[in-house]
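ugh ok fine here u go
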Amino acid sequence: MNAASDMTKPLPLNKVLPLMLLYCILTCIGMYHHELWMDDVLHWILAKDCKSIPGLFSVSNYDDHVGLWKLLLFIAVHFISDNPITIQILHLVVINIAVWGQVFIYMVSYSFSLILYNGIVRINIIKYYRLLRESIGR
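structure:
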């Protein structure tokens, strides 16, 4: 096996999980020491003061943040807690889901592409074998 093919293999799960847990711990520590900035507080205030979701989107027409973030903040503020720490917890959940999802997609897509590749190679080998047998006359 050459070094290039080793680099395309995903890390085994027993090496990925400790790295991901370390990432989660470091993001928790970072969120604990992270102070809220004005753009975070602005969206929290908008989500807290608006009484409806259409009202939230009409107030923030000229804002360049993603509407899904505002919707998540609205749900968190109205149904979980109106404490500003909710923003940090929600952000922590979103970034960890995104990173864990990327790792999962990478591992699944690698496995799927490997299965697909092996299937295509085997089908082609069978086709060439049959063609070879037919050309020889056996």
